[in-house]
Amino acid sequence: MFKKATISVLGLVASVATAGSMGPACTPSNVTVPCITNLWDFGAQALYLRSIYGPAKAVELGALPENKEINSDWNWGYRLEGSYHFNTGNDITINWMHFSTSIDPTEFLGVLTIPAIGLPAIPAPFDLISRNRIDQVNVVMGQYTDLSMRDKMRFYGGLQYANIESTSKNYYITEEIPFIGSNPFTKFDNTDYKGIGPVVGIDYSYYITNSLSLTANGAGSILIGTNKYHAGFVVSPTEAIVEQVFFRKKGVVPSLEAKLGVNYAHNTPIGVANIQAGYQVVNYFNVLQEQLFPNLVGPVRPVDYGVFGPYFGLKLIGNA
């Protein structure tokens, strides 16, 4: 479902950081650049997002109900950004996106087996609780161009850093099992990725009036970093790890991002205030790790992670 949403948004084109009035252009040709100027801007966006995993982690294989999707909660995040504009349409921009959410306790019936301590395969219900988060930082340099009086584009490139984490626990309910009733088991399942690499993108805006514009954005990155996976069983009350799996490797992770929105610019005594709203989709491919079954069985394999949802923001542009 997430990949279909990604394709549909990308197909509509690429979000838009271009904001403010349409402004003069300095070259009377088909494609022009803005006049020399020195500006700054600061912006903040409220993000209302939901995270989603690839199919291999979106369901709990080997447990009942079969193919029950694990849905994360919608939650608020934020994006902060600042830019310095100089020369004929150049800018240096830094932005930071942060989002975290959780998955409410989800009931399953699985098979509990821990060969390391001689525990045979026994049916056992469990509650799954999970949290995930993403921090994304971009440092880029851009160039604005005027395709016409109404069509504006910004091409940019730079570096992106991403820190993505997913942690979960299975709380096995064993009170009714005589020989382990007083020593309940918990399984932890943690995976994360930290990487840095090049990012490129295009911002586009179409001005309906001097103040109101439709915006779109498309961006992609290729990150180089480290994947980690750590899972195991913990027995109470000692909290001792009785069996575990640890996996770590270097990984190259591509990502795609798309936005569609609107921007309204209003002049104020201290600069141009831009009110923004829209919808965004972000997907990192093969960025996290997971195992096929909940009992530390099967190979460790990669899985996608993404977020999607609306955003609302305010950006202030003023003279430097």
UniProtKB/TrEMBL annotation:
It holds the Pfam family Legionella_OMP. It comes from the Bacteria. Keywords: Signal. Residues 1-19 form the signal peptide. InterPro entries: Major_OMP_Legionella. This is Outer membrane protein.
